[in-house]
Amino acid sequence: MNDVSGISADPSASYPRVVWKDWGGDFAAWVDDLLIREGQTFLEDVPAAAALTDESPLNEAYYLRHRIETVWRIWLTARTDALALAAMIGEDYESARSWSEYTAEEMDHDRMFLADLLVHGVTREEVVKTGPLQPTIEMVEYIEQGIREYGALPAVAYSLFVEWNSERFSRRAVQKAEMAFSERHVAGSKFHVGIDLEESHLPVMLGITERLVRSSGNRALLEKLLRDIARFFRAYFVKLHEETNT
Fold first, then answer.
1. Which residue from 46, 142, 166, 186 lies 20 to 30 Å from 53 (Cα-Cα)?
2. Residue 149 domain-assigned (yes or no)
3. Residue 3 included in any domain
4. What is the pTM of this model?
5. pLDDT tier at 34 (50, 70, 90 boundaries)?
């Protein structure tokens, strides 16, 4: 899931803490605590941080540009996902099996967001022409370099980050967009949220990440990766706000 839809006014309030502990014990709780703190930093540093999920009127230009970026993140991270798979085969074959199934499915998710964009009159050719914003380019380059240095974990950390955020905020973002436009305008996004929930993508990512961290004994590296990815997303949302609110 590459749909990070900002954040709510209270990142710690969306789900009871016991959910995360049930999914993965202390490791899941540790991830939860870390990303809640990053969410609070997001609220402090990003203008209109909850624009996609709060009660304010939805800025259509902001929403559409964000959807275009979502497609580009799927396209760009398909490469880093493949590089991570090659590395993971030698690190943990069973995790690589789960990762290959997850990433193969993720490659098709661009079609759902492209379908929604087309309802708005934005074609695939326009998405290609628009291109990704600089923070997204820099984030993908960071992940690719990290794979060369550390193995699969940087790509897995990215997927853990986006699945955690999707689980908390994507449904709310889709509901807001549906109220602003129509059900037809969010058919792909709504289907995408359902896939992530029904197929338990967050627990899958927690499991793969925990296995890799346990085998390497390097939880500090995972913390650095998650914090850096959060920083790239903050930079992206700042840039998105600048480009669509002038």
1. 142
2. yes
3. no
4. 0.89
5. very high
